[in-house]
Fold catechol O-methyltransferase.
Amino acid sequence: MAEFDQSKAYAEQEEVFFDDGRELELLHFVYGKPDIEEIRGNPQKVLAAIDEFARTKKYLMNVGEDKGKIVTELISEVKPETMVELGGYIGYSCLLYADAVRKAGGKRYFSLERDPVFGAVISSLVDLAGLGDFVKVIIGSSAVSIKRLHTEGTLKHIDMMFLDHYKPAYKTDLKLCEELKLVTPGSVLAADNVIKPGNPPYLEYVRSSVAEKRKAAEDSSDESNPDARFADRTAKQYANRQTEEKLQQSRGNPNLIYESKLINSYEPSGVPDGVEITRCTGEESS
Ligand SMILES: C[S@@+](CC[C@H](N)C(=O)[O-])C[C@H]1O[C@@H](n2cnc3c(N)ncnc32)[C@H](O)[C@@H]1O
Protein backbone atom coordinates (compact mmCIF):
# COMPACT_ATOMS: atom_id res chain seq x y z
CA MET A 1 0.00 0.00 0.00
CA ALA A 2 1.35 3.44 -0.93
CA GLU A 3 2.06 5.91 1.86
CA PHE A 4 -0.55 8.53 2.67
CA ASP A 5 0.28 11.93 1.17
CA GLN A 6 0.06 14.26 4.20
CA SER A 7 -0.06 17.35 1.97
CA LYS A 8 -3.54 16.18 0.88
CA ALA A 9 -4.90 15.54 4.40
CA TYR A 10 -8.33 16.88 5.24
CA ALA A 11 -8.69 19.26 8.19
CA GLU A 12 -8.86 17.50 11.54
CA GLN A 13 -12.13 15.77 12.45
CA GLU A 14 -13.69 17.74 15.32
CA GLU A 15 -16.06 16.38 17.95
CA VAL A 16 -19.04 17.69 15.99
CA PHE A 17 -18.04 17.08 12.40
CA PHE A 18 -21.25 17.24 10.37
CA ASP A 19 -24.70 18.83 10.34
CA ASP A 20 -23.46 22.06 11.95
CA GLY A 21 -23.97 24.22 8.87
CA ARG A 22 -20.74 23.17 7.11
CA GLU A 23 -22.63 21.42 4.30
CA LEU A 24 -24.26 24.72 3.23
CA GLU A 25 -20.95 26.53 3.79
CA LEU A 26 -19.48 24.09 1.29
CA LEU A 27 -22.09 25.10 -1.31
CA HIS A 28 -21.27 28.79 -0.82
CA PHE A 29 -17.56 27.98 -1.10
CA VAL A 30 -17.93 26.01 -4.34
CA TYR A 31 -20.36 28.42 -6.05
CA GLY A 32 -18.25 31.39 -4.84
CA LYS A 33 -15.09 30.20 -6.55
CA PRO A 34 -13.77 32.70 -9.11
CA ASP A 35 -13.45 29.93 -11.75
CA ILE A 36 -16.99 28.59 -11.20
CA GLU A 37 -17.72 28.71 -14.97
CA GLU A 38 -14.81 26.31 -15.63
CA ILE A 39 -15.97 24.06 -12.80
CA ARG A 40 -19.49 23.83 -14.23
CA GLY A 41 -20.05 20.58 -16.14
CA ASN A 42 -16.81 19.01 -14.89
CA PRO A 43 -17.21 16.39 -12.07
CA GLN A 44 -13.45 16.24 -11.40
CA LYS A 45 -13.26 19.99 -10.87
CA VAL A 46 -16.26 19.92 -8.52
CA LEU A 47 -14.50 17.15 -6.57
CA ALA A 48 -11.31 19.24 -6.44
CA ALA A 49 -13.30 22.17 -5.02
CA ILE A 50 -14.85 19.89 -2.35
CA ASP A 51 -11.39 18.54 -1.45
CA GLU A 52 -10.07 22.10 -1.22
CA PHE A 53 -12.86 23.02 1.23
CA ALA A 54 -12.20 19.92 3.35
CA ARG A 55 -8.44 20.58 3.41
CA THR A 56 -8.49 24.30 4.07
CA LYS A 57 -11.83 24.98 5.85
CA LYS A 58 -13.60 22.11 7.58
CA TYR A 59 -13.41 18.32 7.64
CA LEU A 60 -16.03 16.47 5.58
CA MET A 61 -16.86 12.77 6.06
CA ASN A 62 -16.17 11.90 2.40
CA VAL A 63 -14.67 8.65 1.15
CA GLY A 64 -11.76 10.72 -0.17
CA GLU A 65 -9.21 10.20 -2.96
CA ASP A 66 -7.40 7.08 -1.71
CA LYS A 67 -10.37 4.83 -0.94
CA GLY A 68 -12.30 6.43 -3.81
CA LYS A 69 -9.67 5.21 -6.29
CA ILE A 70 -10.17 1.59 -5.16
CA VAL A 71 -13.84 1.85 -6.14
CA THR A 72 -13.38 3.80 -9.40
CA GLU A 73 -10.87 1.15 -10.57
CA LEU A 74 -13.42 -1.52 -9.72
CA ILE A 75 -16.09 0.38 -11.68
CA SER A 76 -13.87 0.43 -14.80
CA GLU A 77 -13.44 -3.33 -14.47
CA VAL A 78 -17.05 -4.30 -13.60
CA LYS A 79 -18.72 -1.73 -15.90
CA PRO A 80 -22.00 -1.66 -13.95
CA GLU A 81 -25.13 -0.63 -15.79
CA THR A 82 -26.74 0.38 -12.50
CA MET A 83 -24.89 1.42 -9.36
CA VAL A 84 -26.41 2.27 -5.98
CA GLU A 85 -24.80 4.02 -3.03
CA LEU A 86 -26.17 3.92 0.50
CA GLY A 87 -25.27 7.19 2.25
CA GLY A 88 -24.54 10.14 -0.03
CA TYR A 89 -23.73 12.96 2.45
CA ILE A 90 -22.71 15.98 0.30
CA GLY A 91 -22.17 13.97 -2.90
CA TYR A 92 -18.42 13.31 -3.02
CA SER A 93 -18.63 9.55 -3.69
CA CYS A 94 -21.68 10.17 -5.86
CA LEU A 95 -19.84 12.57 -8.19
CA LEU A 96 -16.70 10.41 -8.26
CA TYR A 97 -18.45 7.11 -8.96
CA ALA A 98 -21.28 8.38 -11.19
CA ASP A 99 -18.65 9.99 -13.44
CA ALA A 100 -16.79 6.65 -13.56
CA VAL A 101 -19.98 4.65 -14.22
CA ARG A 102 -20.97 7.02 -17.04
CA LYS A 103 -17.47 6.77 -18.58
CA ALA A 104 -17.70 2.95 -18.36
CA GLY A 105 -20.93 3.00 -20.40
CA GLY A 106 -23.37 2.59 -17.47
CA LYS A 107 -26.94 3.89 -17.39
CA ARG A 108 -27.89 5.06 -13.90
CA TYR A 109 -26.51 5.97 -10.49
CA PHE A 110 -28.76 6.05 -7.44
CA SER A 111 -27.61 7.97 -4.35
CA LEU A 112 -29.70 7.08 -1.28
CA GLU A 113 -29.44 9.66 1.49
CA ARG A 114 -31.60 9.91 4.59
CA ASP A 115 -31.07 13.59 5.43
CA PRO A 116 -33.08 15.95 3.18
CA VAL A 117 -30.62 18.85 3.54
CA PHE A 118 -27.64 16.67 2.65
CA GLY A 119 -29.71 15.29 -0.24
CA ALA A 120 -30.34 18.83 -1.50
CA VAL A 121 -26.59 19.53 -1.37
CA ILE A 122 -25.92 16.35 -3.40
CA SER A 123 -28.49 17.38 -6.04
CA SER A 124 -27.04 20.87 -6.32
CA LEU A 125 -23.48 19.61 -6.84
CA VAL A 126 -24.62 16.82 -9.19
CA ASP A 127 -26.35 19.46 -11.33
CA LEU A 128 -23.29 21.68 -11.24
CA ALA A 129 -21.14 18.76 -12.40
CA GLY A 130 -23.46 18.07 -15.36
CA LEU A 131 -24.54 14.69 -14.00
CA GLY A 132 -28.19 15.64 -13.43
CA ASP A 133 -29.54 13.31 -16.13
CA PHE A 134 -27.49 10.39 -14.91
CA VAL A 135 -27.86 10.49 -11.12
CA LYS A 136 -31.04 9.99 -9.15
CA VAL A 137 -30.85 11.26 -5.56
CA ILE A 138 -33.36 9.50 -3.33
CA ILE A 139 -34.14 11.02 0.06
CA GLY A 140 -35.16 8.68 2.87
CA SER A 141 -33.97 5.79 4.94
CA SER A 142 -32.13 3.28 2.74
CA ALA A 143 -34.31 0.24 3.52
CA VAL A 144 -37.54 2.15 2.80
CA SER A 145 -36.08 3.61 -0.41
CA ILE A 146 -34.74 0.26 -1.64
CA LYS A 147 -38.17 -1.34 -1.13
CA ARG A 148 -39.98 1.50 -2.88
CA LEU A 149 -37.60 1.62 -5.86
CA HIS A 150 -38.01 -2.14 -6.22
CA THR A 151 -41.83 -2.06 -5.96
CA GLU A 152 -42.07 0.80 -8.49
CA GLY A 153 -39.82 -1.11 -10.87
CA THR A 154 -37.34 1.79 -10.97
CA LEU A 155 -34.58 -0.44 -9.62
CA LYS A 156 -34.50 -3.93 -11.12
CA HIS A 157 -30.95 -5.06 -10.40
CA ILE A 158 -27.90 -3.75 -8.57
CA ASP A 159 -24.72 -4.39 -10.54
CA MET A 160 -22.59 -2.50 -8.03
CA MET A 161 -23.35 -1.12 -4.58
CA PHE A 162 -21.32 1.18 -2.34
CA LEU A 163 -22.24 0.88 1.34
CA ASP A 164 -21.33 3.96 3.36
CA HIS A 165 -24.24 4.79 5.67
CA TYR A 166 -25.38 3.63 9.12
CA LYS A 167 -22.88 0.86 9.93
CA PRO A 168 -25.33 -1.70 11.45
CA ALA A 169 -27.54 -1.33 8.34
CA TYR A 170 -24.85 -2.61 5.93
CA LYS A 171 -25.77 -6.22 6.65
CA THR A 172 -29.54 -5.75 6.99
CA ASP A 173 -29.73 -3.70 3.75
CA LEU A 174 -27.62 -6.26 1.89
CA LYS A 175 -29.95 -9.02 3.05
CA LEU A 176 -32.95 -6.95 1.94
CA CYS A 177 -31.36 -6.55 -1.52
CA GLU A 178 -30.74 -10.31 -1.65
CA GLU A 179 -34.32 -11.07 -0.69
CA LEU A 180 -35.65 -8.72 -3.40
CA LYS A 181 -33.26 -10.33 -5.92
CA LEU A 182 -31.61 -6.98 -6.53
CA VAL A 183 -28.29 -8.55 -5.54
CA THR A 184 -27.66 -11.77 -7.47
CA PRO A 185 -24.65 -13.58 -8.96
CA GLY A 186 -22.62 -10.94 -10.80
CA SER A 187 -23.33 -8.15 -8.29
CA VAL A 188 -20.27 -6.49 -6.72
CA LEU A 189 -20.28 -4.70 -3.34
CA ALA A 190 -17.83 -2.17 -1.95
CA ALA A 191 -18.21 -1.43 1.77
CA ASP A 192 -16.46 1.57 3.30
CA ASN A 193 -15.12 2.01 6.85
CA VAL A 194 -14.65 -1.66 7.62
CA ILE A 195 -11.53 -0.77 9.68
CA LYS A 196 -12.52 2.67 11.00
CA PRO A 197 -14.92 2.38 12.79
CA GLY A 198 -15.20 -1.26 11.65
CA ASN A 199 -18.16 -3.49 10.88
CA PRO A 200 -17.72 -7.04 12.27
CA PRO A 201 -21.28 -8.30 11.56
CA TYR A 202 -21.09 -7.24 7.89
CA LEU A 203 -17.60 -8.69 7.39
CA GLU A 204 -18.60 -11.95 9.01
CA TYR A 205 -21.67 -12.20 6.76
CA VAL A 206 -19.95 -11.54 3.41
CA ARG A 207 -17.05 -13.83 4.37
CA SER A 208 -19.29 -16.73 5.41
CA SER A 209 -19.88 -19.84 3.35
CA VAL A 210 -23.38 -20.80 2.24
CA ALA A 211 -23.43 -23.55 4.90
CA GLU A 212 -22.49 -21.05 7.63
CA LYS A 213 -25.15 -18.58 6.49
CA ARG A 214 -27.81 -21.30 6.37
CA LYS A 215 -26.89 -22.34 9.91
CA ALA A 216 -26.91 -18.71 11.15
CA ALA A 217 -30.36 -18.21 9.61
CA GLU A 218 -31.65 -21.28 11.50
CA ASP A 219 -30.01 -20.20 14.80
CA SER A 220 -31.06 -16.56 14.79
CA SER A 221 -33.22 -15.55 17.70
CA ASP A 222 -34.02 -12.09 19.09
CA GLU A 223 -32.18 -12.46 22.40
CA SER A 224 -28.91 -13.59 20.89
CA ASN A 225 -29.11 -11.37 17.82
CA PRO A 226 -25.54 -10.06 17.24
CA ASP A 227 -26.85 -7.34 14.84
CA ALA A 228 -28.98 -5.86 17.62
CA ARG A 229 -25.95 -5.92 19.94
CA PHE A 230 -23.79 -4.16 17.31
CA ALA A 231 -26.49 -1.51 16.74
CA ASP A 232 -26.75 -0.99 20.49
CA ARG A 233 -22.97 -0.55 20.80
CA THR A 234 -22.88 1.82 17.83
CA ALA A 235 -25.68 3.88 19.36
CA LYS A 236 -23.63 4.26 22.55
CA GLN A 237 -20.48 5.24 20.63
CA TYR A 238 -22.07 7.93 18.52
CA ALA A 239 -24.19 10.39 20.43
CA ASN A 240 -25.86 11.82 17.35
CA ARG A 241 -28.97 11.21 15.32
CA GLN A 242 -27.19 8.95 12.81
CA THR A 243 -28.00 6.22 15.29
CA GLU A 244 -31.76 6.66 15.58
CA GLU A 245 -32.43 3.90 13.17
CA LYS A 246 -34.68 0.87 13.38
CA LEU A 247 -33.02 -2.04 11.65
CA GLN A 248 -35.32 -4.07 9.45
CA GLN A 249 -34.52 -7.75 9.53
CA SER A 250 -34.77 -9.53 6.18
CA ARG A 251 -34.32 -13.20 5.45
CA GLY A 252 -31.74 -12.50 2.78
CA ASN A 253 -30.59 -15.29 0.51
CA PRO A 254 -28.07 -17.50 2.30
CA ASN A 255 -27.54 -19.49 -0.91
CA LEU A 256 -25.55 -16.70 -2.56
CA ILE A 257 -21.82 -17.40 -2.80
CA TYR A 258 -19.53 -14.47 -2.03
CA GLU A 259 -15.83 -13.94 -2.55
CA SER A 260 -14.70 -11.13 -0.33
CA LYS A 261 -11.45 -9.34 0.41
CA LEU A 262 -10.25 -6.31 2.30
CA ILE A 263 -8.29 -3.58 0.57
CA ASN A 264 -6.33 -1.43 3.00
CA SER A 265 -6.22 2.28 2.44
CA TYR A 266 -6.65 5.62 4.22
CA GLU A 267 -9.35 8.01 5.30
CA PRO A 268 -8.86 11.45 3.71
CA SER A 269 -7.50 12.53 7.11
CA GLY A 270 -4.72 9.92 6.82
CA VAL A 271 -6.17 7.47 9.36
CA PRO A 272 -5.86 3.86 8.14
CA ASP A 273 -9.12 2.34 6.93
CA GLY A 274 -10.22 -0.26 4.40
CA VAL A 275 -12.82 -1.10 1.79
CA GLU A 276 -14.25 -4.63 1.66
CA ILE A 277 -14.82 -5.74 -1.93
CA THR A 278 -17.31 -8.57 -2.28
CA ARG A 279 -18.25 -10.36 -5.49
CA CYS A 280 -21.31 -12.54 -5.71
CA THR A 281 -19.99 -15.42 -7.80
CA GLY A 282 -22.88 -17.89 -7.78
CA GLU A 283 -25.85 -19.40 -6.00
CA GLU A 284 -26.19 -22.85 -4.47
CA SER A 285 -29.50 -24.61 -4.92
CA SER A 286 -31.44 -24.88 -1.68
C1 LIG B 1 -20.12 8.73 5.73
S1 LIG B 1 -21.46 9.63 5.11
C2 LIG B 1 -21.43 9.21 3.38
C3 LIG B 1 -20.26 9.77 2.63
C4 LIG B 1 -20.35 9.64 1.14
N1 LIG B 1 -20.64 8.27 0.73
C5 LIG B 1 -19.08 10.07 0.50
O1 LIG B 1 -18.11 9.33 0.57
O2 LIG B 1 -19.02 11.16 -0.07
C6 LIG B 1 -22.85 8.73 5.69
C7 LIG B 1 -24.17 9.27 5.21
O3 LIG B 1 -25.15 8.26 5.39
C8 LIG B 1 -26.38 8.87 5.70
N2 LIG B 1 -27.22 7.84 6.29
C9 LIG B 1 -27.14 7.29 7.53
N3 LIG B 1 -28.06 6.32 7.68
C10 LIG B 1 -28.73 6.25 6.50
C11 LIG B 1 -29.79 5.44 6.03
N4 LIG B 1 -30.33 4.48 6.76
N5 LIG B 1 -30.23 5.64 4.78
C12 LIG B 1 -29.68 6.57 3.98
N6 LIG B 1 -28.67 7.37 4.38
C13 LIG B 1 -28.20 7.21 5.62
C14 LIG B 1 -26.00 10.02 6.62
O4 LIG B 1 -27.00 11.01 6.66
C15 LIG B 1 -24.69 10.49 5.98
O5 LIG B 1 -24.93 11.54 5.08
Remarks:
- The pocket of S-adenosylmethionine is lined by residues 61-63, 85-89, 92-93, 112-115, 118, 141-142, 164-166, 169, 242, 245 (CB under 6 Å).
- DSSP finds twelve helices and seven strands in the chain.
- The radius of gyration is 18 Å.
- The first strand starts at residue 82 and ends at 86.
